Amino acid sequence: MILLKNCYRVATFNPNCDELKKVDILIKGNLIEKIAPNIELAPQKADETEIIDCSRHLVIPGMVNCHHHFYQTLTRNLPGAQNTGLFDWLKYLYPIWARLDPDAVYYSTLLATAELLKTGATTTSDHMYIYPAGFDDDIMAIQFEAARKTGIRFSPTRGSMTLGLKDGGLPPDNVVQTPREVIADMERVIDKFHDPSPIAMQKIALAPCSPFSVDKTVMIETAKLARQYGIVLHTHLAETKDEEIFCLEKYGKRPLKLMADWDWLGEDVFFAHGIFFNDSELEFLRETGTGICHCPTSNMRLGSGIARIKEMRDLGIRLGLGVDGSASNDSSDMLGEARNAMLLQRVKYGPGAMSAGEIFRIATTGGANLLGFSKIGRIEAGYAADLALFDMSQLQYAGALADPLAAIVFTGFNHSADWTIVHGKIVVRKGCLTGFDEEEIAAKANESAKRLVNEF
Ligand SMILES: [Zn+2]
Fold this sequence. Notes:
This protein is about 35% helix and about 20% strand. It is built from 15 helices and 17 strands. It has helices spanning about 45, 85-95, 100-120, 140-150, 180-195, 215-230, 240-250, 255-260, 280-290, 295-300, 310-315, 335-350, 355-370, 405-410, 440-450; strands spanning about 1-15, 15-30, 30-35, 50-55, 55-60, 65, 120-130, 155-160, 205-210, 235, 270-275, 290-295, 320, 385-390, 420, 425-430, 430-435. Strands 1, 2, 3, 4, 5, 14, 15, 16 and 17 form a 9-stranded mixed β-sheet that branches. Helix 12 (about 335-350) crosses helix 13 (about 355-370). The longest helix is centred in the first third of the chain and has 17 residues, at about 100-120. The termini are far apart. Zinc ion binds near residues 69, 324 and 325.
C-alpha cells in the first residue's frame, strides 16, 4: 500500500468534487482505496505501507497521452527536417525510418515512455505504422517489453501503410505492407496482447496511418475488425491542406466524408489533429460522437495550423491531448503539451479561450475516454491509482501558489513531476525513473539513433 499523507492540493477531476486540501490518499493494490483527512493505518498495515509526505505537493490524475510515434524519438531535431511542412518532412524521414531495427524500437519506447512519465503522463498510446521490409521481429512485443520496464499504462495501436509510391501514395515501397499482411497481423496482436478490462495495462487499438498512405480496402476492413473485437479506431485526419487536396484529387471527397463512407465515425473512433474541418464537419463529429486528439506542438512545429479546439469543446466534441511523434515536437513532454494547448487556443480565440482546468480535463478524463478506459483519469475511490505529484515548493512555482493547478501550466521552465504512480506502483521517485537507469536509456538511444541517421 501507499499512503499520500497530507496532500497540499488534490485536483480530482471528479465532477462531484473540486479541489481538495490537506487530505490523505490511500492506494491499495492498483486502485485508489480512500481519500480523506488523517487516514489512520492499523499497526500491522503500517509496516507494509510506504508513506509519502505530500504537504508540499499538488496531486493530479496521471495525464493520458493519446497520440505519439515513439520511434521518432531517435530522429528528432534532424537538420534536414527542422524547417519543412508535413509532406516534405515525411519524404525526408521515411528512408531513415526504413532502417529501424529491434534495438531502435526498444530504446525509443523506453525513451518516449520515460519522458512521458517524468512529465506527468501515466497512460499512453503509440501509433507505430512503419513496418520495414525485412524487419521480422514482433514490434509490438518489443514495445510492451520496454513499456513494462518503465511502468507506463500502454495502449499501442497497430498502425499500417499499404499505399506506397508505386500506388500513388507518399511512403517509399519498402516501408509499406500488403493489405493481407496488415489484416492478419491486426488480428494476431489483438489476440495476443489485448486486455479489455477497465484498467488494463495492455490495450490494443487499430490505426491505419492516414488516407494518403493506406488503401480503401484496409481502411474498411480495419473498421470491421475493430467493431468485431470492440476496440478503438484511430488515424491522422485533416492535419494539412495537402491531405485535403490529396483526398479531393484521388477520391473526389473531403477527408471526413471519406471517413463517413468507410464507416469510420462513432464513439469508438478518434482522429489525430483535426485542423481543417469546416462548420458542418464539426457538427457531424459531435453528432457521431467521434473524438479528436489535439497535438498543438506538432501543429506549430510543422506550421500545419491551429485546430478549432475551443469550438469543439463548446460543441461537446470528445477531446484528448497528444504530444505526437518526436520528429515533430521534439519531446514527449506531456505537461508542456498542456501548456502549449492552452496558449495556442488563446492565439486564435483570445485570453478566455482555454483555462488551466479545461486543458487538464482534456488531458486526463478526456484522453481516458478517447482511449476507451472507464476507470482512469480521475482521483476517486475505485479508480486506477495513476497519479502525478508536483513539488510546489520548487523555485519555478514560487510566487505562483494562488492557484497551484494553474501554476504548473502557467509557469514552466521545468515540467518534471516529483513522483509518478501508475497502477499503484511508484515509477518516478523524487524526479527519477525507478524502472530503468536514465543515463543508460539516453546512451543506448543515441547508439540506435546513430545507426539510423548518417547525420550524427
Ligand atoms: Zn502523428
